């Protein structure tokens, strides 16, 4: 019985990752446009690493991390362009975006408190851990004080949407299968 629940949780996490990615992408583009109208970036800010997913995908964390990964494996990450860079960045981003929901689905069964806040706490934790701490510390993303104020709207907001979408899928699958929080 425990094995079948774990398999269901992994499958649920993968589905939640797909739904979460779709929701995050839509929210990010919408929130970026809205945020920049309300809080226009200062000159040069959108050129910074991690500051402009709409116009500089090659400078967003998944692209920068993929280049570094290629370098670590003996390649030339700086030579990557266009489709090769985008494909690698998408692969890396999906690995992270599917990994979190699988862990969330598995861990939230024995620890239902993990689902407190309907996924907003998880989304906020991802944002704080990666974009608020690790990525700036490693130079993958510009320092928080350098990024446009609108960045907080679209990057933070889209992570909250991701967390909520992941939790909604986990909760829905559990209700549909009669699994609840068991």
Could you walk me through the main structural features you see in this protein, from its secondary elements to its overall organization?
By secondary structure, the chain is mainly α. Helix content is 68%, strand content 0%. The longest helix has 37 residues. The chain is globular. The N and C termini lie close together (11 Å). The relative contact order is 0.21. The model has no long low-confidence stretch (mean pLDDT 89).
The quaternary state of the protein chains shown equals: single chain
Q: What kind of sheet is the major sheet? A: none
**Inertia-based shape:** globular
Number of helices, counting only DSSP H or I runs of 4 residues or more: 5
Mean pLDDT: 89
The proportion of residues forming helix, as a percent range, comes to: 55-70%
Number of self-contained structural domains: 1
Low-confidence residue ranges: none
Percent of sequence in beta strands: under 5%
Q: Over the alpha carbons, how many angstroms does the gyration radius reach?
A: 18 Å
Secondary structure: number of strands: 0
Give the helix/strand class: mainly alpha
Spatial gap, N to C terminus: 11 Å
Secondary-structure element order, N to C: HHHHH
Describe the secondary structure blueprint for this structure:
Layout: H1 2-38, H2 61-72, H3 82-108, H4 120-137, H5 149-177
Helix pairs in contact: 1-3, 1-5, 2-3, 4-5
Region (Disordered): 39-58
Protein name: Putative membrane protein YagU involved in acid resistance
């Amino acid at each position: 019985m425990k094995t079948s629940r774990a398999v269901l949780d992994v499958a649920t996490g993968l589905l939640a990752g797909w739904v979460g990615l779709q929701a995050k992408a839509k929210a990010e583009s919408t929130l970026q446009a809205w945020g920049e109208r309300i809080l226009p970036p200062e000159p040069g800010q959108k050129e910074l690493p991690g500051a402009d997913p709409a116009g500089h995908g090659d400078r967003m964390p998944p692209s920068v991390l993929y280049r570094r990964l290629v370098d670590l494996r003996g390649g030339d990450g700086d030579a990557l362009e266009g489709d090769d860079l985008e494909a690698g960045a998408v692969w890396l981003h999906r690995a992270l975006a599917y990994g979190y929901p699988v862990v969330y689905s598995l861990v939230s069964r024995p620890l239902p408190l993990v689902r407190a806040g309907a996924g907003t706490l998880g989304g906020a934790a991802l944002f704080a851990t990666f974009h608020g701490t690790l990525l700036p510390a490693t130079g993958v993303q510009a320092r928080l004080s350098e990024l446009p104020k609108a960045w907080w709207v679209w990057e933070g907001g889209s992570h909250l949407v991701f967390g909520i979408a992941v939790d909604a899928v986990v909760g829905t699958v559990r209700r549909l299968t009669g699994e609840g929080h068991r």
